[in-house]
Amino acid sequence: MSLTAATHTIREGAFGNGTHLSCRACGAKSPLGPFYACMECFGPLEVGYEYPTITREQIEAGPKNIWRYQPLLPVPVDVASFPNTEPGYTRLVDAQNLARELGLKKLWVKDDSGNPTHSFKDRVVASALSATRELGMKVFACPSTGNLANAVAAAAARAGIRSVVFIPKDLERPKIITTAVYGGTLVAVDGNYDDVNKLASEIAGEEEGWAFVNVNVRPYYSEGSKTLAFEIAEQLGWRIPQQVVIPVASGSQLTKIDKGFTELGKLGLVDATDYKIYGAQATGCSPVAQAFRDGHDVVKPVKPDTIAKSLAIGNPADGPYVLDVARRTGGAIEDVSDEEVVEGIQLLARTEGIFAETAGGVTVATLKKLIATGQLDPEAETVIINSGDGLKTLDAVADRVGPKVTIPASYDAFVKAGLQ
């Protein structure tokens, strides 16, 4: 806990309709504040709410970003008045070409590459930034596999707050550049993401006023992922799709999309229909998929070895909860090889004109595998998440694509090459 935050006076309404923190393991309640571990069992905390009546019309009248869902998030009513990157309200693509190729009746791609730093992480960072400000913290920080680094550095620059970002030293070069350009402090660590995360946890426990978005303000940060569920439902005409395929790194995105659908149903904003949630991992870092296959409740940590670095978390914090969601909803967790990941990137680009990063390739390839193995119903309406832009992971396809032919600058050469 930050001493600065602990002694800071939290204003009324700082966390919107959030009323408490609740332990996901034992259910014990804690007050809202700079707390992220249960004092009873050390389990993870998440935000609990007491919602007023919320209508579709009220939401639809809001801004074209995640703040249209302010009543459903742990943020104050005036959150939009503070400088932020205003993420969200990304497109939901009717993927008819990809659906036809895979034999699906109806498929949508929630394309979060359209966010300010081109990944879904802008959503969770915006929520974490609000908590950081309300708690009086002075340094905005994170351990990251890349996309979060971009989002934290950009949001801090926009908000005028100091950022310190920690990354594995072998991160993809484009992600390093697109973090450093914002002018914050970028620290490369000799180790994998789990090593970086351990260091961040140590710093968060020792340094005053440091908000590590996915460590000591994680309860607020993770709520930002619910907005993916909210947008999907709203963009489908206020209904929940039958099947959703979601990439799994820490697992937080998947569990919060499930929470978002559940909350919409409880509030009467959608019909509380059944849905199945599927998780997607790369084989080189697939501890949750392995636990699912083996029927285990415990996720055994692994050492990551995959091109999908944004998913390369060998000890995923939300792994057990991902298993719970998949099993409860009747879904599954699958993994695919790096070769299949690259094929997935190319398949989505070729059929829908969407260039996904490696995490998106994992999701597309997993979708294909789930269909082939009979785990996903091709007749049911399906949504897949593209969480980031392929320009961040160019190396994954660099040796696969390029000019078909090189010709002289003449019409005769064009004809001889058979390009008519």
Short recap of the structure:
By secondary structure, the protein is α/β, with parallel strands linked by helices. It is built from 15 helices and 13 strands.
What order do the helices and strands follow? HEEEHEHEHEHEHEHEHHEHEHHEHHEH
Specify the biggest β-sheet. 6 strands, mixed
Helix content: 25-40%
Main-sheet strand order equals: 4-5-13-10-11-12
Please tell me about this protein's structure.
The chain is an alpha/beta fold. The protein has two domains: 92-118 and 219-396, Rossmann fold; 119-218, Rossmann fold (3-Layer(aba) Sandwich). 36% of the residues lie in helices and 15% in strands. It contains 15 helices and 13 strands. It has helices at residues 3-7, 56-60, 96-102, 121-134, 147-159, 173-180, 193-206, 218-221, 226-235, 252-266, 287-294, 319-329, 338-352, 358-372, 411-416, and strands spanning 18-23, 29-30, 45-49, 92-94, 107-111, 139-143, 162-168, 185-189, 210-212, 243-247, 276-282, 333-336, 382-386. Strands 4-5-13-10-11-12 form a six-stranded mixed beta sheet, with helices on both faces. Strand 10, helix 10 (252-266) and strand 11 form a beta-alpha-beta unit. The protein is globular, with a radius of gyration of 21 Å. GO terms for molecular function: L-serine ammonia-lyase activity; threonine deaminase activity; threonine synthase activity. It holds the Pfam family PALP. It is an enzyme of class 4 (lyase). The modification N6-(pyridoxal phosphate)lysine is found at residue 121. InterPro entries: Ser/Thr_Dehydratase (IPR050147), Thr_synthase-like (IPR004450), TrpB-like_PALP (IPR001926), TrpB-like_PALP_sf (IPR036052).
